[in-house]
Each structure stands twice: as structure tokens, then as C-alpha cells.
Design a protein that fits this description.
Blueprint lengths: L15 E3 L2 E5 L5 E6 L4 H12 L9 E4 L2 E7 L2 E6 L10 E5 L4 E8 L2 H6 L16 E6 L2 E9 L2 E7 L3 H18 L2
Antiparallel strand pairs: 1-2, 2-8, 3-6, 3-7, 4-5, 5-6, 8-11, 9-10, 10-11
Length: 182
């Protein structure tokens, strides 16, 4: 009989460092897509506040902190990171467990915005993209969600099948930016 072993999306790929930037894998307890039914966003927000301590996020924003965060994930959709959402939420929204579908990485360090500038067509400098801001955009040729979670600190989410490519592209950009400071 085959012995199957569960692996995280970035197993054996991370952590990596180059210059003053590090890339690590994050391991949220759960990832849940929440898309409120028509006219139910306020009730969904109230439910998430009770169960996770976070409200339903506004467009291009994330609310919460490590362990419990709700991230805007597109029109009428949020990704809830943290524990399992309440079972009663299915009466208010389309709820889908996405825990095994995404790779979640954290890029941090003084040059992290410079690294992302080589891969993303969005201005992520702190003067424009503050803590709590989030965007769905391209990372090289992959769709990604990028959230500013602190000073010079970004959570990057790509579909699990793109984990190896995302790590490769991010590491190449990290080394390129680090070479500029030599």
C-alpha cells in the first residue's frame, strides 16, 4: 500500500533570503472563500466579527491580523484566513474551503517593495500601499493576491500549482535587488 504524506505547497522550497529580504511560507489554519448572497454583506460581516473578530473587508482592503484575517479577494468575495468559519454562515453566503488550494508566502525586509516592483504591475511602495491594503494582480504571469501586513511585509497568495514558479520568480527578483546593493 502507498504511504501518502501531506506536504505544504512550498515544502522544501522555503525559507529563502537574499540581501535584506526573506521569503517564508505561511501556514494558516484554514482558508475559506466567502461570497455573500445578495443583500447579506452586513449579516456576513456581523457573523465574521463574532466568529473571527474581523469584519467583511472593503474593496482592496484586509482586516485582522495573523491568525484571523479577512482579505478582499475580488468583487463580492473575501478570503478568510484563520479558523473554521461558522456553520451558520452558509445561510448567508457561498462558503468554500480553500485550505489546500493556495500557497501563502510572506515577503519581508527593507527592499521587499523593490522586489515586488520587478514582478507586479502595481505600485506597492508604502507611500501608496499601506498596511491593510490588498490587491489581486499579476505576479509575473500568475494571478496573485498581495496584502501589506506590516512595514515592508507582504503576504502573497498564489494557487498551489504555481508555488514552485512563484518561489523561483520571487527568489530571482530578490537576488537581483540584492545585487544592486553590493
Amino acid at each position: 500500500m502507498v504511504n501518502l504524506v501531506a506536504k505544504s505547497p512550498c515544502a522544501a522550497l522555503l525559507p529563502l533570503s537574499a540581501g535584506n529580504v526573506t521569503l517564508t511560507e505561511q501556514h494558516p489554519d484554514a482558508l475559506t472563500s466567502v461570497a455573500p448572497f445578495a443583500e447579506k454583506e452586513v449579516e456576513v460581516s456581523a457573523s465574521l466579527t463574532v466568529t473571527h473578530g474581523v469584519a467583511y473587508p472593503a474593496v482592496n482592503h484586509a482586516v485582522g491580523k495573523d491568525g484571523a484575517r479577512a482579505i478582499w479577494f475580488g468583487q463580492g468575495q473575501a478570503m478568510v484566513m484563520g479558523g473554521k468559519v461558522s456553520d451558520d454562515l452558509v445561510q448567508l453566503a457561498a462558503v468554500t474551503d480553500q485550505s489546500d488550494a493556495w500557497a501563502v508566502m510572506r515577503l519581508q525586509g527593507a527592499s521587499s517593495a523593490d522586489v515586488l516592483a520587478r514582478l507586479v504591475p502595481v505600485d506597492l511602495r508604502s507611500s501608496v500601499f499601506a498596511e491593510g491594503d490588498t490587491v489581486r494582480t499579476e505576479l509575473q504571469h500568475m494571478m496573485a493576491s498581495i496584502t501589506c501586513v506590516g512595514t515592508d511585509c507582504f503576504d502573497i497568495m498564489v494557487m498551489r500549482s504555481f508555488a514552485k514558479t512563484a518561489v523561483h520568480d520571487l527568489h530571482a527578483a530578490m537576488k537581483s535587488v540584492a545585487a544592486l546593493s553590493i
